[in-house]
Specification:
Blueprint lengths: L6 H17 L4 E6 L17 E4 L1 E2 L4 H11 L8 E2 L13 E5 L7 H14 L5 E6 L1 E2 L7 H13 L6 E2 H10 L2 E9 L3 E8 L1
Parallel strand pairs: 1-2, 1-5, 3-4, 5-6, 7-8
Antiparallel strand pairs: 6-10, 9-10
Helix pairs in contact: 3-5
Bound molecules: S-adenosylmethionine.
InterPro entries: DUF938, SAM-dependent_MTases_sf
Protein name: Methylase
Organism: Isoalcanivorax pacificus W11-5
Amino acid sequence: MDKPYAPSCDNNRGPILAVLQQYFTAPATVLELGSGTGQHAAWLPAHLPHLTWQPSELADNLPGIRAWLNDAALPNVAAPIPLDMAAPWPALDFDHLFSVNTFHILAADEVARAIATGGARLPAGGLFVVYGPFNYDGDFTSDSNARFDGWLRARNPASGLRDQGWVVEQMQTAGLTLIADHAMPANNRTLVFRKA
Ligand SMILES: C[S@@+](CC[C@H](N)C(=O)[O-])C[C@H]1O[C@@H](n2cnc3c(N)ncnc32)[C@H](O)[C@@H]1O
């Protein structure tokens, strides 16, 4: 099959890797939520060889991820698994969670469920790293983020940029504390949470 392609992955993968290299320093299993095309799973773990990378997505998107992973042939990436972030997760072991550009796609109640499940399933000390555009104190951080939010909501009224403070509250309720909030290119952020 033709591999699905998202230009944003090529643009954001370098800066994301630079952040992950600060936190994912020891051997561990990372569960990626909403792996999308599979481009991140086919590239990031090549530069983090001490990690075991577990991609996951809604079942319909797994063939595209497999196509990227077949070509990349990375020894530290597992076959992608079907996982609906907002539904009960399958039984599996992982040390950290990672998700890129999903919190503004899922409905707010789905994000809350994903955080609750992730918080319950992460081991003590586990990290939940979330990349994407966020609002602060209810405000957009740029005109382009405001336009993007309008485009998202026109496509699906349940989508939309989440407020960083709201995400922090959901994480706290799930037992996770914000340990870093990195500014990223193009008005994105990387939020790093740690389970107590
Ligand atoms: C904007 S894309 C980001 C994909 C990828 N992480 C990236 O950075 O290119 C959002 C992804 O979330 C996935 N998604 C939407 N709802 C989901 C859910 N309930 N559980 C898991 N993934 C979901 C979509 O299939 C889509 O691939």
